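Field notebook, page 417. I keep forgetting to write these up properly, so this time I am using the form the group agreed on. The chain and the ligand, pyridoxal-5'-phosphate, are recorded exactly as supplied. Prediction of the bound pose follows.
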Amino acid sequence: MGEYLVKCTGCGSVQPPHALHCQNDDALLRTEYLTRRLTSRDLPGIWRFYDWLPVRRPLEGVGAAPVTYKSQGLAKELGLRNLYISFSGYWPDKNARMTTCSFKDLEAPPTVERMIERDDQKVLVVPSAGNTARAFAEAASAVDLPLVLVVHSAGLRRLWITGTPSDSICVVSVNGDYTEAIDLGARLSSQPGFVGEGGARNVARRDGMGVVMLDGVLTMKTIPKHYFQAVGSGTGGIAAWEAALRLAGDGRFGTTLPRLHLAQNLPCAPLYSYWSGTKPDLCNFREMYDDVLYNRKPPYEMKGGVKDALENTNGTVYGITNAEAAEARKLFEESEEIDILPAAAVAVAALGKAMATKTVDPKDTVLLNITGGGISHLKEEHDQNILERDLVAESANLVSDLDLLDEINEVLRRHEA
Ligand SMILES: *Cc1c(COP(=O)(O)O)cnc(C)c1O
C-alpha cells in the first residue's frame, strides 16, 4: 500500500493528504512514504512503483511507464560510454506506450486517481500549454472525471487524444500565453465546486514524474551521476531530485545524488536567468522552438523548489537556442531512429554542450530524459481525436470569472444530459 504522510519541506509539519500549501509558509509539500526500499510490484506501467505513489490503488486503463535503455547511437555520437535514455512516448518496439506521447502521462493518472479517492464531487481545473491537457483529457476520459482544461489558444492544436474524449470535459481557450492560462485556471479553482491540480505543488504530479528516475535506476542498477531534462517550470527536475533522495535513502543504488542538468529554450528562459544571474530577455513565446517550455512563474525560490534542487545536487541550467535544439533533434532522431518532441531536443542539446565543455566525463553514467516522442508511430496506428473548445476567454485578465463559471457549469450540464 502506498502509505505516506504529506509534510512541509519548510517547517516539517504534517499536512492533510490533499493539501497543496502549508498553513505556515510558502514551501512545497512532499510525500514521505512508509516503505523505504524501492520495490517493483507486479502491476502494469507506473503502478509498479505504487509504494512511492500517493494513491491507494492503481487507476485502471491508464498509467503507461517510461522505458529506460542503454543508448548506442547517440552515445557514440557524443562519445559517452554509459548513456541511458528514459523515453516517455509511443515506441511499441521498445514497449513504450504513452498514447499522448509525453511524460505528462506520468502526472495525470496519479492525480486523477487521487481526485477519485478524494471523492468530494469537485470539478478538476487544469491549465496547460497542451501536453498536460492531452494527458489529463486521456486519464479523465478513462473514468469520466469532470474536468475543465484551460489552454492558451496556441496550445489548442495539441489537444487530441487517441481514445474518445469524455463528455465530462470542458475546454476553455484563452487568448494569451500559458501563464495567463495558469492565472485564469487558478482563479477558477478557487471557486466553490472547483479544485485546482496545483501544478508543481501537487505531490501526485511530482511523484508520478519521479518514476523516470525510479525506472532508470532499476535499469542502470545505480543512481546516475548526471540527469538531463528540458524544463519549463522545472517540476520534473524537482521530481527527479526527490526520487533520487528516496533512492539514496534506500542505499542499494548508491547514496550520491545525481547532478541536475536542466535545459531551457532561449530567450524565454526565466530559470536560466535566475540561475545564471543574467537579466531575463524580453521574449515572445511564439518564436520558441517549443513553447511548452515557457513558464513565466516557475517554482524557483521557495523551499523545496528548483533552486533548492539545483543547490542540493550541484546542478546547473543551460540556455539553448532554437538552432542548437534543431541540430540536436536531427542528431537524436538519426542516431536513435525515433522522432522526439521539440522540447526533448532541448535536453539533447544541453547534453551536447556538457560534453563539449567537459562538464560530463565520457565514462560517467548519464540519464537523459526524453520527455516526449514517437508521434509518427502513434499516427500510423491510432486516430487522433481532437477535443473541440467549448468556450473562449478573450482576455484572461478581463474576463468575468463568474460569467465564465456559469458558462462552464452549463457546458458540463449539457454534456451530462
Ligand atoms: C512539460 C514538458 C517539459 C517540462 O516539464 P517541467 O514541468 O518543466 O519539468 C518537458 N518536455 C515536455 C515534452 C513537456 O511536455
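OBSERVATIONS:
- Residues 197 and 264 are 24 Å apart (CA to CA).
- The two ends are 38 Å apart (CA to CA).
FOLLOW-UP: compare against the apo run.
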